[in-house]
Amino acid sequence: LRPWRVLGFESSCDETGVALVECREGEAPRLLAQGLHSQIEMHQAYGGVVPELASRDHIRRVLPLTRQVLQSADLGLHELDAIAYTQGPGLAGALLVGAGTAVALAASLGLPALPVHHLEGHLLSPFLSADPPQFPFVCLLVSGGHSQLMRVGAVGDYELLGETIDDAAGEAFDKSAKLLGLPYPGGPHLARLAESGRADAYALPRPLLHSGDLNFSFAGLKTAVLTQARKIDLQDAQLRADLAASTQAAIVEVLLKKSLAALKQTGLRRLVVAGGVGANRSLRQALDQACARRGVRVHYPELALCTDNGAMIALAAAMRWQATQAGQPSQPAPTAPAP
Ligand code: KG4
Ligand code: ZN
């Protein structure tokens, strides 16, 4: 049987991602090529993403990246079977670039254009790793825009167990980092600074830790960091590192305890961590340690696929296609507000 190939576009925020995924019968989908352009440097001067600039840059990058991806896979447009794109959630103007490109390309080639929910892309991304998970599992999805715990039974079978009631975990990292004078996006910078700090230097709150449910809240933590930051000399490198380490420890502890509670509640013994914050080394260490003690296996996406990328979008479309081919009852695709 001829392989089935899908080109995927991601443009929900500040990364333009294009990737090509191939499915062969009886095999796991394979990533053939991918291209990514990060706009981080462009937005850094403004301390955050400027939506208008993001849209314009996606327009500049999307076709050259597409050409580059096809070239490195040594394939032509006529060898594709579908075009996938991030439908949302994300910045409306940015999403429109990926959606418009995909829909136009699909129409001109007579192929289906497949909308993919951005979070479905994140949560399936570990299936491209060397150690892919098996269904069912608990997914901790922690990105710049979302913090969720889900029970994932199969492709399309997603049960929300808990989510943030205010800021996302990545937002907590980014906003705290900004208070410490670190560049955007602050998560990785704060993590690096935390390496030379003492995690118990400041007593910061662990919001909703004992709420009895699986929801998160990080807004109060940010306020507590602000209060501390105002009390100390931020020029003092050690004090800054201590505050960074204490902040990271608070976020990690909440994510860890809630993940363990979700595993207990569902009775599952597999945890998948996805989204940008899943790249955090301290979080990975804490989860690995606690899960090893409980006989729970933890799976992560490849580091480069934790943050936004086109591969996860093409993959999600491919896994949906495979599920239909396998005759599995088709699960409705999660829908995001169309851009
Ligand atoms: O998944 P993602 O690329 O975008 C969204 O869909 O939101 O996640 C980006 C988020 C940012 O908040 C960034 O600071 C955070 O992930 N992040 C990290 C690390 N790497 C990325 N946070 C903590 N530690 C890291 N190493
Ligand atoms: Zn994302």
From TrEMBL:
Primary localisation category: cytoplasm
Subcellular location: Cytoplasm
Swiss-Prot/TrEMBL keywords: Acyltransferase, Cytoplasm, Iron, Metal-binding, Transferase, tRNA processing
GO biological process: tRNA threonylcarbamoyladenosine modification
Cofactors required: Fe(2+)
Pfam families assigned: TsaD (PF00814)
UniProt-annotated binding residues for substrate: 141-145, 174, 187, 280
Cofactor note as given: Binds 1 Fe(2+) ion per subunit.
Coiled coil: none
Enzyme class per UniProt: transferase
Family: Belongs to the KAE1 / TsaD family.
Described purpose of this protein according to its UniProt entry: Required for the formation of a threonylcarbamoyl group on adenosine at position 37 (t(6)A37) in tRNAs that read codons beginning with adenine. Is involved in the transfer of the threonylcarbamoyl moiety of threonylcarbamoyl-AMP (TC-AMP) to the N6 group of A37, together with TsaE and TsaB. TsaD likely plays a direct catalytic role in this reaction.
Protein name: tRNA N6-adenosine threonylcarbamoyltransferase
Organism: Inhella inkyongensis
